[in-house]
């Protein structure tokens, strides 16, 4: 019905491991994205949450879903301006390589995993690999943008596109392209403390850097 309704969901990842595997919404994030006319926001921090809420209040049509983390997330550098300026386009460059150079890798992340993507960028830089970090709080809004806007965020010159999201990796093919890949989850999680579950499923900067090196930089 396209009513401007906002639903706020919490506990959005495997980091709720101590609640048991049935409480981990691995399939719900991609399932929500399949609902026609629904816009899903998975904000990376408080600024992205506020920007998405402001966008929602101004929208004439909905519905909207906010998928929020149970964990406390740090406020990321730059989101105080970038999130409010670019929330309408669904994604934006949060951290880039030096001006005039092309990234070797583009890291696309949502929600709490944006912080992880920034950590991956730092480790890659130690090996001389330049990474662009793209925060994508709403894939639906990004897919509605013109090709020019999309390419200003994700350079078509870069084939090494890596999506980082603690959910089933469905629907990311158009974002990653044929040579990219998704760091996701294809089964229900395990019941354990958050940090242990995260390590077990490969959501550490070291594990992701190893995957990137093996695929693109051997």
Please give a structural write-up.
The structure is a single chain. The chain has 218 residues and is of the alpha/beta class. The protein has nine helices and eight strands. Helix 7 links the parallel strand 7 and strand 8 (181-183). The chain starts with 5 loop residues before the first strand and ends with a helix.
Characteristics:
218 residues, alpha/beta, 3-stranded parallel beta sheet, 9 helices, 8 strands
SS field, number of helical segments = 9
The number of E-state strands comes to 8
Mean pLDDT: 93
In percent terms, what proportion of residues is strand?
Answer: 5-15%
* Percent helix range: 25-40%
* CA gyration radius, whole angstroms: 17 Å
Class from secondary-structure proportions: alpha/beta
Side by side, the strands of the main sheet go 4-6-5-7-8
Order of helices and strands: EHEHEHEEHEHHEHEHH
CA distance, first residue to last residue: 51 Å
Given as residue ranges, the uncertain stretches (5+ residues, pLDDT < 50) are: none
Largest sheet: 5 strands, mixed
Describe the global form.
globular
């Amino acid at each position: 019905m396209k009513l401007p309704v906002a639903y706020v969901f919490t506990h959005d990842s495997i980091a709720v491991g101590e609640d048991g595997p049935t409480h981990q919404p691995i399939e719900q994030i991609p399932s929500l994205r399949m609902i026609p006319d629904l816009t899903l926001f998975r904000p990376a921090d408080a600024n992205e949450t506020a920007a998405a809420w402001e966008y929602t209040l101004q929208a004439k049509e909905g519905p909207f879903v906010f998928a929020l983390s149970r964990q406390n997330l740090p406020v990321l550098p730059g989101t105080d301006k970038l999130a409010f300026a670019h929330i309408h386009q669904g994604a934006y460059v949060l951290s880039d390589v030096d001006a005039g150079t092309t990234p070797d890798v583009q890291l696309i992340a949502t929600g709490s995993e944006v912080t992880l993507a920034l950590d991956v960028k730092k480790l890659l830089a130690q090996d001389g690999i330049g990474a662009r970090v793209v925060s994508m709080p709403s894939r639906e809004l990004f897919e509605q943008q013109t090709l020019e806007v999309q390419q200003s965020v994700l350079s078509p010159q870069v084939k090494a596109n890596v999506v980082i999201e603690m959910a089933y990796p469905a629907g990311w093919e158009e974002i990653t392209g044929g040579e990219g890949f998704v760091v996701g989850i294809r089964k229900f999680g395990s019941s354990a403390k958050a940090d242990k579950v995260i390590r077990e499923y490969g959501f550490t900067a070291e594990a992701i850097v190893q995957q990137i090196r093996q695929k693109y930089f051997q």
